[in-house]
Amino acid sequence: MMAAVSKSLLGSLLLAGVIMGLVTSSEASVYDVGGRDGWVPNPSESYDGWAGRNRFLVNDKLVFRYRKDADSVLVVTKQDYDACNGGNPIQKLEGGDSEFKLDRSGPFFFISGTPGNCQKGQKLQVVVLAVRNVKPGPSPPAPPPAIPPSPLPPSERPTSPPAPPPSPSSNSTSGTGTQTTPSPSPNPSHPSHSSSLAGASTITLGLAAMILGGAFVY
């Protein structure tokens, strides 16, 4: 049952690391394992629960506080962690107040070196997040320069329609004055021509009277 719970919790921690992404660590932090309880069997809070409330980065340090010559810390594999097997540890920490540096990303597994204490909950797994160096992104490319439209050839340029001729009755305005187009006046009759007609009529009447007078004489 504990192995199944441990696998589920480890999967949750790994998933949380993926969701949170890669982070950048500028300074290492130091964590007292278990808080006030220290490294003891039957802790008031499970060590995996304590680890789930923290975020571990590369170069952070874990401090296991316990009584000297009474306990130890074993760094083990995932299989030995699940089985509480301390017979083949990767590393053994002893002497009290042992310090362990998290020198890589990924999971770490710890159990008590005292037989039987691992079964009492004295075991810890942590997941260290990877570190990514933040680099400034490339600047966006400059927009291309605007190209002015090419002028149209004379044959394709739009032409404006000719203005309509002015109406004869319309008045044209120039400046501030108004000019009215004068209407043509009838030509006056010449007096000399009238006098000539009157004279010719008188001569004609005189000749007619003479002819009529000669006829009565004969």
TrEMBL record:
The chain crosses the membrane at residues 197-217. InterPro entries: Cupredoxin (IPR008972), ENL_dom (IPR041846), Phytocyanin-like (IPR039391), Phytocyanin_dom (IPR003245). Residues 29-130 form the Phytocyanin domain. Its main location: membrane. The keyword S-adenosyl-L-methionine does not apply. The keyword Membrane applies. Residues 169-182 have a biased composition (Low complexity). Belongs to the early nodulin-like (ENODL) family. This is (wild Malaysian banana) hypothetical protein. The lineage of its organism: Eukaryota, Viridiplantae, Streptophyta, Embryophyta, Tracheophyta.
